[in-house]
Design a protein that fits this description.
Order of helices and strands: EEEHEEEHEEHEHHHHHHHHHEEEHEHEHE
Protein name: ATPase involved in DNA repair
Strand order of the largest sheet: 2-1-4-5-6
Number of strands: 15
Oligomer: single chain
Coiled coil: 349-383
Organism: Providencia rettgeri
InterPro entries: P-loop_NTPase (IPR027417)
Keywords: Coiled coil
């Protein structure tokens, strides 16, 4: 669908509404400078979702709301409201000067509705290297609304901002050709490159870790061949073992019995050894007791020969101590008791000696039994090894060694296979981590050729002199005229060339159902030598002849192609053309009868 503008209304408290009636048709607004023409362009851009508020022009003070009444090609009518103070927006069905209190505004904002109405929903374009984005209302406004600076600027259509050049070129290519960039092959983004670089480093570390466990110089092929050989040798041994299974089973049962006997004998040996240690410890205690008794006997035998003396400190006689009297044992009795106790301990030691001899005899028997058990175990092991030993002279290792070798080779093969897979993954990650230039291959030959033919036809209709050829330069999304860039021409020709470019683009997009707002607004497209603003300092500006202006206005009055065009100019048409145009004239503060400007005074 396409959009047609019916009326722009700017209102404010206690203010007479400022109106511009277009009635959905192409229109010319002309008049001198400072009559509000630039404000109209900025206000319409703002009503269609632009972020920049219109600049005040003096008479605009006190106006707080702008409304753009539009119709769609499906005969639905809407009003787009924007608050000129805080930027609030609302969309209502039907035509209104102010938001109707009895109706509910649409849920979507203006930019979302423009995408829906113009068929831009889901359309993907390349917005920067390696990243796709949506075709937005801002992209549509950029090819539809041009203020005076944008019209006459000497910047190619891709723009100055390097961050937006890719987006601008992609958007124009989509609007021109109708094909989006959803199928384009994207290079890796910066974030993905950094992630891939980290993955590559991690994979490299993992490869080194796996190779550290693999024997040096062992290749996957060698490991697989060695594994086959080891497996074959193990199968030969297993076959030999299976043929001697009964004999081997008997040997293993015998070994189990030998091991059981050994455990039992070792338990007995440990118990006897503990008994030996305890008996020896007890004998040492008896010896200590006898030595103590001998000391008591000696002391008692010489105690009576000592003279009793009083305390050298207090001179108290020991006979006066009650405790001494109670515990004073006769010396002969003490000697007899010590002798008797010593004899008893000697008897106990004799019995202990016999018991210790029995333990030592048993220990000797158990030691011999353990040695015999060890010999039987060794003999049994040798018989088993003989059965398990390689029977082929070419086989160097037994079953146990071969089994260990097989495990090691299997692990090495698994590691090497993993390394091969990781190396493939590493090469992939290294490829992703490298910065690659975005290659864009859009088939725009047919659409750009048709566009340039229409631009040439328009320029011929307008009588622009010296236009022999028009070509599309997709590197900057602009046109070349006579092998010269559009921006290399003077101000006069730049403006008329851009106008033809954008009008042709609008006509092609609307005719083929490509996303487009369906109208084109251009401020100052025809700059002539008589222009009061630019005609004075016209050196190297390549300003146009008056005939171009007349033919341009005649074309605007008679055009039947799709799309609405709003032109804002300083110079008025001739009277004959004026009568066939839809126009609004601002006379300015000259004292001439008529409308002074956009805002009522």
């Amino acid at each position: 669908m396409t959009i047609s503008i019916h009326e722009l209304v700017v209102t404010g408290p206690d203010k007479v509404p400022a109106r511009l009636k277009l009635n959905g048709k192409s229109h010319l607004v002309f008049g001198p400078t400072d009559t509000g023409k630039s404000y109209i362009v900025e206000c319409l851009r703002y009503c269609f979702g632009g972020s920049q508020k219109p600049k005040g022009v003096g008479f605009s003070d006190g106006y707080t709301r702008a409304a753009a009444q539009i119709s769609l090609s499906n005969s639905h009518f809407f009003t787009l409201f924007r608050n000129l103070l805080n930027g609030e927006e609302a969309v209502y069905e039907g035509f209104h000067e102010s938001p109707p209190q009895s109706e509910i505004a649409l849920e979507n904002n203006i930019s979302e509705l423009l995408q829906i109405w113009c068929g831009a929903v889901g359309v993907k374009i390349l917005i920067k290297s390696g990243k796709l984005g949506n075709l937005t209302a801002g992209d549509l406004r950029r090819v539809s609304i041009f203020d005076e600076i944008e019209t006459l600027n000497n910047v190619s259509f891709e723009g100055k901002d390097t961050n937006l050049k890719t987006r601008n070129k992609s958007a124009l290519a989509m609007i021109l050709s109708g094909s989006d960039d959803s199928e384009i092959i994207l290079p890796t983004s910066t974030n993905d490159r950094n992630i891939a670089k980290g993955h590559a480093e991690a994979i490299d570390e993992q490869i080194n870790s796996l190779l550290a466990d693999v024997p040096e110089g062992l290749s996957l092929k060698d490991a697989q061949e060695s594994l086959l050989k080891v497996t074959a040798e193990i199968e030969v041994i297993n076959h030999h073992i299976s043929s001697h299974a009964s004999e081997l089973a008997e040997l293993r049962n015998t070994r189990l019995r030998i091991d059981k006997e050994r455990r039992q004998q070792f338990q007995k040996f440990a118990a006897l050894k503990e008994a030996e240690n305890r008996f020896q410890l007890l004998d040492k205690k008896y010896v200590s007791d006898q030595q103590r008794l001998q000391a008591i006997s000696i002391a008692a035998s010489i105690a009576d020969s000592f003279e009793i003396r009083p305390c050298p400190l207090c001179y108290t006689d020991i006979q006066h101590q009650l405790r001494h009297q109670d515990q004073d044992t006769p010396t002969p009795m003490l000697l007899l008791a010590a002798h008797a106790e010593n004899e008893k301990i000697s008897g106990l030691r004799e019995g202990l000696k016999e018991a210790l001899n029995d333990v030592l005899i048993n220990l000797d028997e158990i030691s011999n039994a353990l040695k015999q058990n060890e010999r039987e175990a060794l003999e049994n092991e040798q018989k088993q090894d003989a059965l398990l030993a390689p029977q082929n002279t070419n086989m160097k290792y037994g079953l146990e060694t071969l089994s260990d070798r097989k495990v090691a080779l299997s692990m090495a093969i698994a590691d090497l296979l993993r390394v091969d897979n990781l190396r493939i993954r590493l090469a992939e990650m290294k490829g992703k981590s490298k910065r690659k230039k975005q290659t864009i291959d859009r088939d725009m030959a047919e659409s750009s050729t048709a566009l340039c033919k229409r631009i040439k036809a328009l320029l011929d209709d307008w009588g622009v002199p010296d236009v022999d050829s028009v070509y599309f330069d997709d590197s900057v999304s602009d046109i070349n005229i006579n092998q010269r860039k559009r921006t290399s021409y003077g101000k006069g020709k730049r403006g008329i060339f851009l106008t033809a470019y954008m009008v042709a683009l609008m006509e092609r997009a609307t005719a083929n159902g490509h996303p487009h707002l369906g109208f084109t607004i251009i401020d100052s497209p025809v700059v002539t030598y008589k222009d009061p603003k630019y005609g004075t300092n016209s050196d190297d500006e390549e300003l146009l002849d008056e005939s171009v202006k007349d033919r341009f206005y005649t074309w605007l009055a008679n055009r039947t192609e799709p799309g609405q065009i709003l032109i804002l100019e300083n110079e008025e048409p001739n009277l004959e053309t004026l009568n066939s145009l839809n126009f609004t004239e601002f006379v300015g503060p000259k004292g001439v009868p008529g409308r002074l400007g956009f805002f009522p005074v």
